[in-house]
Amino acid sequence: MSAPDATGMRILVIEDQRDIAANIWDFLERRGHAVDHCADGATGLARARLGGFDAIVLDLGLPRLDGLALCRALRDAGDGVPVLMLTARDTLEDKLRGYAEGADDYMVKPFALRELEARLRALHRRCAPAATPAPLSHAGLAYDPAMLAATREGRRIPLTRMQGALLAALLAKAPHVCARERLLRTLWPGGDGDIAALHTLVYELRALVDRPFARPLIASVRGVGYRIAEAP
Ligand code: CA
Q1: CATH code for residues 136-228
Q2: CA–CA distance from 209 to each of 54, 76, 151, 156, 206 (Å)?
Q3: 30 C-alpha to center of ligand 1: Å?
Q4: Cα of 60 to ligand 1 centre, how many Å?
Q5: How does pLDDT run across 188-197, given as a tens digit for each residue?
Q6: Are 165 and 186 in contact (CB under 8 A)?
Q7: How far does residue 230's CA lie from ligand 1's centre (Å)?
Q8: CA of residue 22 to ligand 1 center, whole Å
Q9: pTM of whole model > 0.85?
Q10: How far is the CA of 58 from the centre of ligand 1 (A)?
């Protein structure tokens, strides 16, 4: 494999359909990226665990270990590598399950290869250490993007990348309200998010940083969005 140029990413493609994998590989390599490929989930997980990838393109339906289980295994091990999940079906359930297991973005087959590359670049930018903002906090709730963790009352609470991005967006506006539309654009820059996915993500975040504590901090502002503020 030739070395990537200055703008090239190192991308792991885990996809069992040989023709799709070959198309992705050919396109991305011609665009200057270094591509590695695995055709089943177990091999893909082992390769991903070796590290060194800027992003992973992960098929949902895979032999030996499916994409959801693979993604969960990576996140459980604290691996925050950006994951773009591919699926054959455009179902909300698939999408929500993918995000719940820690996927960062989601595309439905068939897709345009240019769009795939644009999404991978966006994920890479969003996750690059240089772009990581400083820790944020309000009302005793803090988020450290470098550690992908919240802290509250001295407790460290690990978050998925999506949960962390939601918390960061809310903290950046706190104590003011963050509009749903703004959250959708921030969290799903590819335009793939919807209100249901946002509700699910807010629910997950509340379960982690609000429910275990005496005072709730994440408030819904009906018809507008969400805010982090101490109850009056
Ligand atoms: Ca498949």
Answers
A1: 1.10.10.10
A2: 29, 18, 8, 10, 5
A3: 24
A4: 6
A5: 877 788 999 9
A6: yes
A7: 46
A8: 13
A9: no
A10: 9
